[in-house]
Amino acid sequence: MTFNGTWKVDRNDNYEKFMEQMGINMVKRKLAAHDNLKITIEQNGDKFHVKESSNFRTLEIDFTLGVNFEYSMADGTELSGAWTMEGDMLKGIFTRKDNGKTLTTTRIVQGDELVQSYNYEGVDAKRIYKRG
């Protein structure tokens, strides 16, 4: 499958502004910008297994497309939502448990890069990963 493989963060676009909009404090934003995040994705039909490894934590997530699940961001923000497939793009719509606001995330493979885009309260950001 297209998303299968290990992806290492290469660069960020407007990521700090996005984290600020999310309410993440300055110290955590600075750490997150240099977290050396690595994502390993294994897709089997509509089921995904994702392992996120960074300087700060390792987390494994299993989800099925279209099925709600709960997720905790590295800063402790609790979310609930689901991933769906729109063409070649994974799209996640998640609701924050603390304030009910929506975070939209997409993942698409472009060449040898995985582009993960975020939108929260009108702020857009991207994290671009290279196959690693």
Give the overall shape.
Answer: globular
Average residue-wise pLDDT? 94
Q: Roughly how many Å apart are the termini?
A: 16 Å
Secondary-structure arrangement, i.e. CATH architecture: Beta Barrel
CATH topology term: Lipocalin
Strand content: over 45%
Q: If you compute it from the alpha carbons, what radius of gyration comes out, rounded to the nearest whole angstrom?
A: 14 Å
Largest sheet: 10 strands, antiparallel
Helix content: 10-25%
The SSE order reads EHHEEEEEEEEE
Helix count, DSSP H or I runs of 4 or more residues: 2
CATH class: Mainly Beta
Sheet with most strands: strand arrangement: 4-3-2-1-10-9-8-7-6-5
- Regions with pLDDT < 50 over 5+ consecutive residues? none
Q: Please state the structural category.
A: mainly beta
Number of strands: 10
Total of domains: 1
Let me know the CATH homologous superfamily. Calycin beta-barrel core domain
Write the layout of secondary structure elements.
Elements: E1 5-13, H1 15-22, H2 26-32, E2 38-44, E3 47-53, E4 58-64, E5 69-72, E6 78-86, E7 89-96, E8 102-110, E9 113-120, E10 123-131
Antiparallel strand pairs: 1-2, 1-10, 2-3, 3-4, 5-6, 6-7, 7-8, 8-9, 9-10
Give a concise summary.
Pfam families: Lipocalin. 11% of the residues lie in helices and 58% in strands. It has 132 residues and is mainly beta.
General description of the model:
Cytosolic CRABPs may regulate the access of retinoic acid to the nuclear retinoic acid receptors. This protein has 132 residues and is mainly beta. It has one domain (5-131): Lipocalin (Beta Barrel). Helix content is 11%, strand content 58%. It has helices at 15-22, 26-32; strands at residues 5-13, 38-44, 47-53, 58-64, 69-72, 78-86, 89-96, 102-110, 113-120, 123-131. Strands 4-3-2-1-10-9-8-7-6-5 form a ten-stranded antiparallel β-sheet. A hairpin with a 5-residue loop joins strand 7 and strand 8. The chain is globular, with a radius of gyration of 14 Å. The two termini are 16 Å apart. The model has no long low-confidence stretch (mean pLDDT 94).
